[in-house]
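stage 2 :: seqdesign
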C-alpha cells in the first residue's frame, strides 16, 4: 500500500503482489478466469437476447452495481494524504503516549480534511467548518485526533448532534441546499440554541472559507487527558498550527472559485504534495490541571468554550508533514475510519458530554458505512504494530486468527496460558472518582453562551468584523421566515450591539430586544426565552 509519488500507471504486472492478489496482463473475471471476449455479451444468434448463462457479464455488472457505499453521515466530502508526525519536544513527564517519548521519534500518520455539511459531490469552498482528522499509527495502536479547524463547537451535549445535523443538511422536503448553512432550518435551530452563538461567530468569520487545507489550523476541541507512566493525569487540549500560516479567501472569491473549480481544495493539496511542497503543522498542547480548570468561570468540559492562548500558551511538541498523496480515493479517503474512541496508552477522555457521545457514534456509524466489523483490517485502518486478540469471523474476514484457542486464557495457542493483557504496560483508564445523582439537567457551569462570542468578535480587526457582519447578513437574507431572523438578531444583541445593529441595518430590519440571556440548559428554557422576544 505504499508507493513513491508518481503519475504513471502502477497496476503492476506479472508476479507482483498487490494486497495478496497477483496482477496479470490478461483480462479476467473476478475469480481469475481469462476472458475470451471483453467487448460482447453472450447472445443467441446474431441479434438475439442475452443469456443469463453469461457469467462474465454477470460478474462484471454485479460488482459494478454494488460499487457505492453510504457516504459519511457528516463530513462526506473530504480529501486525504499520508505523512509523518515527528516529536520535537519529548514529554514523558506528562504522558506515556508513544509518539512523545523521544525527541526525533517519527510516527506514521494519515490525515483527512473535510467539509461538514456538504454531500460527497459538493463544492470545496462552501462556508462551512472543516474537519481535520489525524490517524497516528503508533507502536501502541492507532490514535485518532478527530478535530475541526474551529476550536469550539455548536452544541454542548451529543444528544443534540442529530438535531444539529438535520438542521444543517439539505432540507428533506426539497433536497437543498447541499452545502450551505444559508437556509431556514439551520438558522431556526441556531436561533433556538443560544449555546451555538460562539460557534456561529467563528462560522461567520473568514475561518470557514480557508484559502486551502494547507492554511488552516486544527483543534482537538475537547479537553482530553494525558496520563503519565505512574497513572497521574493532566488535562490537555490539542492544536495544529500550519507552518504555511493561516489564510482565507473572501466570500466573493469563494463564490467564484466554487463555480470555476469545485475541487479547488483537493487539487491544491494534491498539487502541493506532488510538487514536493510538503505542508506542515506544529502539534501543540495546552496542559492544565484541575486546580487551574476551576479558576475559569466556564467549564473546561464545555465544547462551546476555549481556553485563551494568552492565558495558557500552546506548547509545541511535534510536527506533522504530509508528503504522500493517496493512491486510491476509495481505499483510503472513503474507507478510512476515524473515531475519538481510538486512543492509546497515555491518552484518555474527559467527561465532556459531547466527547462521550462521539466515542459511541463513530464506531457505530462505521459498521453501517463500511459494512463489516472487520474494517480495522483494511490497509488504511490496520495498525502498524503487532495485533493479538481473539476476535474471530464476521463479514469479510481477511486476517483470521490461527490455531485452536480463540479465547482467553487458553493454554493451546502459545506458551503457558497464551497471550494475556499486560497489567503494567497495557492501556489503563485513568483512575477517578465520580459521584452524584443521575440527572439530565445541564450544569450551571455550562450556562454562559455569550461572553466568549463577544471576546471573539472584539478580538477581530475592523476588516474581519466587517466580514462577519456581511456573512450574517448574507446568510440571514436567504432565510425566508422573518421570525428566525429576529431571533438571531436578539441573540446577537447579547454578543455585541454594534454587531446586531450592523446586521439588522444590512437586512433592513429594526433591531429587536435582546434575547433574555438565560441559562439555556433546560429543555423548556431556550424556546420560552427565545420566543419571548417575538
Ligand atoms: C465525522 C469532527 C462532533 C459524529 C467527523 C469527521 C470529523 C469530525 C473531522 C470526519 C472524519 C473523517 O474525515 O472521516 C467532529 C468534531 C466534533 C464532532 C470536531 C465536535 C467537537 C460529533 C458528534 C457526533 C459526531 C457530537 C455524534 C454524536 C460523527 C459521525 C461522523 C463524523 C457519525 C461520520 C464518521 C464516519 O462515517 O466515519 N466528525 N465531530 N461528531 N462525526 Fe464528528
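stage 2 :: out
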Amino acid at each position: 500500500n505504499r508507493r513513491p509519488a508518481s503519475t504513471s500507471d502502477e497496476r503492476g504486472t506479472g508476479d507482483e503482489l498487490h494486497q495478496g492478489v497477483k496482477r496479470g496482463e490478461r483480462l479476467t473475471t473476478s475469480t481469475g478466469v481469462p476472458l475470451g471476449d471483453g467487448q460482447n455479451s453472450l447472445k443467441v444468434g446474431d441479434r438475439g437476447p442475452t443469456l443469463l448463462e453469461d457469467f462474465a457479464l454477470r460478474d462484471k455488472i454485479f460488482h459494478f452495481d454494488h460499487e457505492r457505499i453510504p457516504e459519511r453521515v457528516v463530513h462526506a466530502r473530504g480529501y486525504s494524504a499520508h505523512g509523518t508526525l515527528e516529536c520535537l519536544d519529548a514529554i514523558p513527564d506528562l504522558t506515556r503516549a508513544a509518539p512523545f517519548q523521544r525527541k526525533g521519534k517519527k510516527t506514521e500518520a494519515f490525515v483527512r480534511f473535510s467539509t461538514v455539511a456538504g454531500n460527497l459531490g459538493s463544492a470545496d469552498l462552501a462556508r462551512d467548518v472543516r474537519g481535520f482528522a489525524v490517524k497516528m499509527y503508533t507502536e501502541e495502536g492507532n490514535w485518532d485526533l478527530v478535530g475541526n479547524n474551529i476550536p469550539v463547537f455548536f452544541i454542548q451535549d451529543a444528544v443534540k448532534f442529530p438535531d444539529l445535523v438535520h438542521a444543517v443538511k439539505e432540507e428533506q422536503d426539497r433536497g437543498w441546499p447541499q452545502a450551505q448553512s444559508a437556509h431556514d432550518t439551520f438558522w431556526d435551530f441556531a436561533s433556538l440554541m443560544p449555546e451555538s452563538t460562539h460557534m456561529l461567530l467563528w462560522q461567520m468569520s473568514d475561518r470557514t472559507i480557508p484559502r486551502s487545507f494547507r492554511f488552516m489550523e486544527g483543534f482537538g476541541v475537547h479537553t482530553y487527558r494525558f496520563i503519565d507512566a505512574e497513572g497521574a493525569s493532566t488535562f490537555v487540549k490539542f492544536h495544529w498550527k500550519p507552518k504555511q500560516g493561516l489564510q482565507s479567501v473572501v466570500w466573493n472569491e469563494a463564490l467564484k472559485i466554487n463555480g470555476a473549480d469545485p475541487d479547488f481544495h483537493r487539487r491544491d493539496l494534491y498539487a502541493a504534495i506532488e510538487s514536493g511542497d510538503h505542508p506542515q503543522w506544529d502539534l501543540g498542547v495546552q496542559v492544565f490541571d484541575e486546580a487551574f480548570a476551576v479558576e475559569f468561570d466556564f467549564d473546561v468540559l464545555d465544547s462551546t468554550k476555549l481556553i485563551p492562548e494568552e492565558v495558557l500558551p500552546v506548547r509545541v511538541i511535534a510536527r506533522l508533514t504530509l508528503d504522500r498523496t493517496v493512491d486510491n480515493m476509495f481505499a483510503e479517503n472513503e474507507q478510512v475510519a476515524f473515531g475519538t474512541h481510538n486512543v492509546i496508552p497515555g491518552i484518555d477522555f474527559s467527561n465532556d458530554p459531547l466527547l462521550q457521545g462521539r466515542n459511541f457514534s463513530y464506531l457505530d456509524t462505521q459498521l453501517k458505512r463500511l459494512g463489516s466489523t472487520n474494517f480495522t483490517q483494511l490497509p488504511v485502518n490496520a495498525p502498524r504494530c503487532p495485533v493479538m486478540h481473539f476476535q474471530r469471523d464476521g463479514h469479510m474476514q481477511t486476517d483470521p486468527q490461527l490455531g485452536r484457542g480463540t479465547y482467553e486464557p487458553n493454554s493451546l495457542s502459545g506458551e503457558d496460558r497464551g497471550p494475556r493483557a499486560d497489567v503494567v504496560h497495557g492501556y489503563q483508564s485513568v483512575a477517578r472518582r465520580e459521584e452524584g445523582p443521575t440527572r439530565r439537567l445541564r450544569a450551571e457551569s455550562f450556562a454562559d453562551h455569550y461572553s466568549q462570542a463577544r471576546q471573539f468578535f472584539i478580538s477581530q480587526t475592523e476588516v474581519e468584523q466587517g466580514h462577519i457582519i456581511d456573512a450574517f447578513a448574507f446568510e440571514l437574507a436567504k432565510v425566508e421566515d422573518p421570525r428566525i431572523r429576529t431571533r438571531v438578531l436578539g441573540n446577537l444583541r447579547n454578543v455585541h450591539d454594534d454587531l446586531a445593529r450592523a446586521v439588522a441595518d444590512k437586512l433592513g430590519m429594526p433591531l429587536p430586544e435582546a434575547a433574555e440571556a438565560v441559562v439555556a440548559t433546560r429543555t423548556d428554557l431556550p424556546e420560552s426565552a427565545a420566543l419571548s422576544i417575538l
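stage 3 :: structure notes
- Residues 1-8, 11-15, 519-534 have pLDDT under 50 and may be disordered.
- The radius of gyration is 26 Å.
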